[in-house]
Amino acid sequence: MASLVGAVLSGLTGDPESWTQRLGEIAPDLIEEIHERKQPSTGLPDLEVDGRAVLRFAPNPNGPATIGSVRGIIVNSEYARRYHGEFIIRFDDTDPKTKAPMLDAYTWYLDDCEYLGTVPDRVVYASDHLLEYYEYAKKLILMDKAYVCTCPRDEFKRYKDAKEPCPHRDADVDANLKHWGQMLDGGYPEGGAVLRIKTDIKHKDPAMRDWAAFRIVETPHPRTEIGDRFRVWPLLDFESAIEDHVLGITHIIRGKDLMDSEHRQRYIYEYLGWQYPKTLHWGRMKIHEFGRFSTSAISEAIADGTYSGWDDPRVPTLRALRRRGITAVAIRKFMIDLGIAETDISLSLDNLYAINRKIVDPAANRYFFVWDPVRIEILDAPSMVATPKYHPERDELRKIPAGSTLSVCRTDIEGLEAGDKLRLKNLYDIEIASIEPLVARCIGGTHGAWCATCEKPRYQILHWVPDEHVPVVVRAPDQTYGGIGEAGIVDEVGNIVQFERFGFVRIDSVDAGRVVAYFSHR
RNA sequence: GCUCCGGUAGUGUAGUCCGGCCAAUCAUGGUGGCCUUUCGAGCCAUUGACUCGGGUUCAAAUCCCGGCCGGAGCACCA
Predict the structure, then answer these.
(1) Beta-strand pair A439-446/A400-402
(2) Separation CA A452–CA A422 (nearest Å)
(3) Nucleotide showing the shortest C1' distance to residue A190 CA
(4) Residue with CA nearest to B4's C1' atom
(5) ipTM (interface predicted TM)
(6) From the C1' of B40, which residue's alpha carbon is nearest?
(7) What is the distance of C-alpha A2 from the center of its chain?
(8) What is the DSSP annotation of A262-313?
(9) Tell me, in Å, how far CA of A460 is from C1' of B32?
(10) How many domains does chain A contain in total?
């Protein structure tokens, strides 16, 4: 349509301003259309959908969902929802050895999906379908599109790099059928043979040349129903190619590291006369806060005690974010806003935190938590009960009885001198009498009760905790904070609260009077 | 080495397919102010970008070529 605009404009003379003016006179609808097309959009772009939409997320359950997996779950499920289609979780658990599946992870993935608000319409286990894969392998062998290769890896690599066929490439169908049978029956040791898909050994892209589809793995599969029933396992490109077709996947949306995988798989689709799903890829994602990470590296660090588990706040898993009180709504919005650009991105979790803060702030009760506490004696302290609000927008009050000794953050009194004045929030103003020992004197009237008309604070406002308190530890990604908090915190287990002047935390547990909180964000 | 992608403010992102009200959207961050008996919250203001060089065109962020930079694949991992 816009080309029509060009046709109109090219027939005009004069300055550009008069052109558009002229166009407005001749064809105002075109002007409107230009406006429309340039409207900014947000979130995920529209998909080309022909009939129904079936999408999948296909993790190897060799660990729990990481931030990267979460992107896959959310983007795919969001599209399925948008087009009233189907969302499938498919466990690509066909490597019992190098990246062996972890039984717990299967459950964790499904649990994480539920947390994210997207229960999959179907759950599929690739390891249930070995016999089906064998069928297709046989079919391809019969078509002379696959062959058994017994070259050692580096020897095949030499052939491949030289664009030359290995000696097994030209074996006839009968020989391949026989050797394939031997693979299945244990006639070759682990590493002794692979089944390769015939592509084009002279293909300009070395990644395409006769790729391996099956190999022998003697390690039993961790799923007990599978165990040691199979010794020939498909590789991703084969397994995924078959599954995507069988499941009727219409759109594959995943990281662009699997871009070449598509080209390899297309050979199978071509041989079998299938139509490949539409594909979309997003670029590499790097999170500032976590740097480079791999599931296996985290696994090791957990094993040696560096991390407390898969939900340690320092670990980039969804389980960790959940424990920290990052809501599903925030995570979804965060991922959807990222879109699916192919650009490699390197981003900070600040965006996620900002989204979460807006969600969590209206509901989170406020509490005093004093980290690195130091006791301060108050002379002339009136005996009183402070009544700060649970939330600045609401009228419910909490009650904190204050005695003549209180605790405040060490950093708040550092650098102060005798004579300096401070306001203790919802209590009274004090004047430092001496630093060593730390003593202050109550000055002015009390203003412990909440009142909208109280005089404006004249001094820096500090939060504090009375002698009657509970020990609190806050586990944050960067460090663990030890301190004390007001007693009411123990009633907030499972909730997200704000520790004033500290940040939002999720109260995780109370064990023998000791509170454990997980840090969300500022 | 071969091959495939990508490059818009500090960070993400919209616009790129189909060139034209694009001196370029939104968010986050930075800065300043206001508000507040917490705050890095809220409100207001402000800051800041089309990777470079050629070409095509009346017109280029958008199309073409080349360079530079970044990422990925070339596994008997997924």
Answers:
(1) unpaired
(2) 20
(3) B76
(4) A260
(5) 0.91
(6) A522
(7) 40
(8) HHHHHHHHHHHT--PPEEEEE--EEETTT-S--HHHHHHHHHTTSSSSTT-T
(9) 21
(10) 2
Closest CA to A216 of A163, A143, A150, A140: A150
Q: Which residues neighbour A115 within 8 Å (Cβ) at sequence distance 6 or greater?
A: A318, A322, A328
Inside any domain, residue A504: yes
The CATH code of the domain that includes A385 is 2.40.240.100
Note whether A464 and A425 are within 8 A (CB): yes
Distance A334 CA to B14 C1' (A): 16
Q: What's A126's DSSP letter?
A: G
Q: Are A197 and A165 in contact (CB under 8 A)?
A: no
Phi/psi class of residue A291: alpha, beta or left (left: φ > 0; alpha: ψ in -120 to 50)?
A: left
| Digitized pLDDT (tens) for each residue of chain A, 522 residues in all | 343 444 444 344 343 344 444 444 444 444 444 444 445 566 788 888 888 899 999 999 999 999 999 999 999 999 999 999 999 999 999 999 999 999 999 999 999 999 999 999 999 999 999 999 999 999 999 999 999 999 999 999 999 999 999 999 999 999 999 999 999 999 999 999 999 999 999 999 999 999 999 999 999 999 999 999 999 999 999 999 999 999 999 999 999 989 999 999 999 999 999 999 999 999 989 898 887 778 888 899 999 999 999 999 999 999 999 999 999 999 999 999 999 989 999 988 999 999 999 999 999 999 999 999 999 999 988 888 898 999 988 888 999 999 899 999 998 888 888 988 888 988 888 999 999 889 999 886 655 555 444 566 668 889 999 999 999 999 999 889 999 999 999 999 999 999 999 999 999 999 999 999 999 999
Q: Which nucleotides of B are covered by protein (CB under 7 A)?
A: 1-8, 10-22, 25-29, 36-42, 58-59, 61, 70-78
Q: Is residue A108 part of a domain?
A: no
Judging by DSSP bridges, how do beta strands A146-149 and A122-125 pair with one another?
A: unpaired
Angle A437-A443-A446 from CA coordinates, rounded to 5° = 120
Domain that holds residue A507: 364-522
Per the domain annotation, does A444 fall within a domain?
A: yes
Round and report the angstrom distance from CA (A59) to C1' (B2).
30
Distance CA A59, CA A90 (A): 7
Backbone φ, ψ for residue A111 (5° rounding): -65, -40
DSSP string, A466-493: ESSEEEEEEE-SS-EEEEEEEGGGGGGT
The verdict on whether omega for the bond into residue A471 sits within 30 degrees of 0, i.e. cis, is: no
Element (H, E) at A252: strand A251-255
Any domain includes A269: no
DSSP A167: T
How many residues belong to chain A?
522
